Amino acid sequence: MKKILSLILLVASTPLFATPYFSGETGAVAKFANTETSEFKPSLRFDAFIAGQISLNNKLLLRGEASLQTEDLYENGSTNETLSVFRVNEISATYTTSSYGTTKSLSFFKGNFENIGTQQFVQRRLGAQNYASSLTENYLGQNGVSAYQVYGYGGSASLTFKSIPISTGLVISRNDEKDDREYQINFDWRFATAFRYLTVDLLAGCGAPVTRKNSDGEDVYLLIETLYLHGGIDMLLGNRHSPIALYILGGFDDYPVKEKKDGSDKLKVEDVFALAELRFNLNGARIHITGYNVPSASLEKMLFINESFGLNYRFICDKLHTSKRNFSVGFDFTMGYEGKYVKDFFDKDLNDVLNVKISPFTEIDAMDGKLKIYGLINLTKISDKKPESAKLFIGYKKDL
Q1: Cα–Cα distance measured from residue 299 to residue 195, given in angstroms and rounded to the nearest whole number
Q2: Does residue 273 contact residue 308 with C-beta atoms inside 8 Å?
Q3: What is the distance in angstroms between the CA of the first residue and the CA of the last residue of the chain?
Q4: 236-273, pLDDT tens digit by residue?
């Protein structure tokens, strides 16, 4: 009996006394803009995030991530109090076991968890490399740009096959931050694959808003009046080295199974995230051509895109180096429409809200990380003498 108890204590304490392994990532960006037309009056805002994970005995993985956004540091002086938003993006624990040619993962989380567009699910389960669009790059971690957010608190169970690069699973979560609902229970199916010329991260499911009052205002124990469908896809046809590749990112939330008679809760184009990017890999250079339709909530988190609908052209020369470091240079050319979406393409006043922008940039290897400098000139606002016609972004990311 003593031997059995000793064995149980040994197994239970192994993760606690095993040598832990820590890894993570951090980044920050400073955003400068001139807020006046006739004089120099800059604004300065910061975005930053830090993410880390601790592996115990290769089975238990603890993760955490936080982000910070500040208001204008120049407005009240950089040494005075400045409004800022601090957010814990993720707290999670994942336990992983392997048997019968599969790897099983069980996770519990609070906050964001492997959103569609962050590519964390396909990277964590299948080891895929990041293939996201440069337009969705940000310095807010999981609080940044995504086509669909898995948010709240809940659990996830997934099954990954060792013989083929496929992972699938279920996610159940509760979201208490829906504006017009007491809370919502979400049931989602997750699927990912990472073949040589095809990488897919897919989520599809439904949300069940729960309330304790019926339409007459009477108290009830539990009431679900309708279901809301949601989903998202993050897909790359080809790979980083393909001469031609196509990247697609899309998602939507709150599509009602049973709509109201007046159609007030119908899914609108303004609420659909859609991005398609055609990529050309030339000898020593790359060209990306991207069309996008972005909801306002996601638009607020994008770095140099302020228009909800538009077209972006990016040229990158990324095989440059000196004797000490590698670097790349390029530029973005963007034609975007403020407050317009795909459905408004034939509107007569479309050109009245057109912004034409050029953004030169460089990325430099520095201090074991990546230093990125973006300049942005809004040609339309310069000609109209509008504020924020020129901006500067200086960002840095590093693995910990």
Answers
A1: 31
A2: no
A3: 45
A4: 999 988 999 999 999 999 888 875 555 556 778 899 99
Phi, psi of 144 (to 5 degrees): -90, -150
**Cα four-point dihedral sign 134, 139, 140, 142:** positive
Taking the CA atoms of residue 95, residue 98, residue 99 and residue 101 in that order, the dihedral angle to the nearest 10 degrees is 130
Name the burial class of residue 357, with classes exposed (0-12), middle (13-18) and buried (19+) by CB atoms within 10 angstroms of its CB: buried
Helices (H), the chain: 2-17, 120-126, 296-299, 379-384
Please tell me the distance from the alpha carbon of residue 120 to that of residue 261, in angstroms, as a whole number: 39
Count other Cβ atoms within 10 Å, centred on residue 391: 21
Q: Are 170 and 150 in contact (CB under 8 A)?
A: no
Is residue 244 within 8 A of residue 281, CB to CB? The reply is: yes
- Residue 13 φ/ψ, nearest 5 degrees: -90, -10
At 2, is the secondary structure helix, strand, or coil?
A: helix
What's the longest Cα–Cα distance across the chain?
85
Q: How far is CA 303 from CA 98, 244, 307, 396, in A?
A: 40, 26, 11, 14
Please name which of 231, 190, 233, 191 lies closest in space to residue 207, comparing C-alpha atoms.
Answer: 231
The residues, any chain, with a CB within 8 Å of residue 178's CB and separated by 6 or more, are 184, 209
The reported pLDDT for the residue numbered 37 is: 66
How far from 203 is each of 162, 188, 251, CA to CA, in Å? 21, 7, 9
User: Could you tell me if 248 and 273 are in contact, meaning their C-beta atoms sit under 8 angstroms apart?
Assistant: no
Which residues are CB-contacts of 262 (< 8 A; sequence separation ≥ 6)?
none
Chain segment 374-384, per-residue pLDDT in tens? 999 999 888 77
